[in-house]
Structures are given as structure tokens and as C-alpha cells.
């Protein structure tokens, strides 16, 4: 099972110019569609005098992936698709790339537009720090207070992250762990019930 994915850490900016048209590209780390929409809206407001604000995003991993590509008035598949192509070819997720175009007065044709949007998006990615992250799964476990030491030993041994905890007479702990190790963590915790 592949439980790793690549994403970007910082915001990267790219630039491309062709026949006086300027293409300003911005790559952002995003973790939700709402976050992506807010960023897109902010670029539309900031660059209100630009002709187009095209974008593509990919959010999530596995069967939870959400993707969208938008040409924002450019000829079909000449903007969003080439931007998305850069996201896919770099194997990135949790990323939004917006490319703002200032029209230079000369039509670039479909081939020229594809090259321009692809190149601007690639330049934005090139100015980002690409990182590998783990797909985490949450494991919730209920136990009695006397089992605390055993539970904490398993947590420490398996290097699980404590996401939430509630320690009263009956205790609950929510752990985050690499997806491929989640089942083993469940088994080790359940085994404590029989010790």
C-alpha cells in the first residue's frame, strides 16, 4: 500500500511572457476545496484588470481525490488542462495553481496558449519546496485507567501521534498513524484487553 504523497510547502510564483501577454502563476498548498476557492477569489479581486484567471487543483489522496481545471474564458482545454498536466506530471496533490493572464493584444492560438499556461505553471512549481507526507489514519481506542501504561507503551513503540485524549474513569484516545500501520496498531491495542 502506498501511504505517501507529494505536495508543496510554500507558495511558489512563476512567470511567462509571449507576444506581450503576461502569465503570472501562483502555486499554493491547499487542503480543501473551500480554501482553494477563497484563494482563487482573492486573485480575481487582486488582478481584477486581468483578462483571465485560470486554475487547476488536486486535493486529497486515493479515492478521496478532488480535481478541477478551469479555462476562465480561454478556448477549451488551453489553460486549465495544461496547468493540471503540470500537477499530475509532478505527482503533486493538495495543490492549487492559479495563472493570471494579461492580454497583450496578439492572439497566441491554441498551441501558444497551452505552452504559455504549462510553462507558467511549471515555473511556479519550480519555486516551491516539494515535500513527501504520509497518509494518516485515525485509530480510536477505549480503555480503563489501569491500562494506561500499556497503551502509552504501544503509542511510543509505534510512534503514533496523539490527536485527542480523554482520561477519566473510562479513557479514550484518538491516534494518528501511517495508514499502512493502522491495523497493526489496532491489533496491539486490542491485545492489551487480554493481558
From TrEMBL:
Name-wise, this protein is: YigZ family protein
| GO CC terms of this entry | cytoplasm
Question: Which domain of life does the protein's organism represent?
Answer: Bacteria
**Span of domain Impact N-terminal:** 19-125
Q: What does the sequence similarity comment in the record state about its family?
A: Belongs to the IMPACT family.
Q: Which residue spans traverse the membrane?
A: none
GO terms classed as biological process:
regulation of translational initiation
Tell me which species this is from.
Answer: Hallella mizrahii
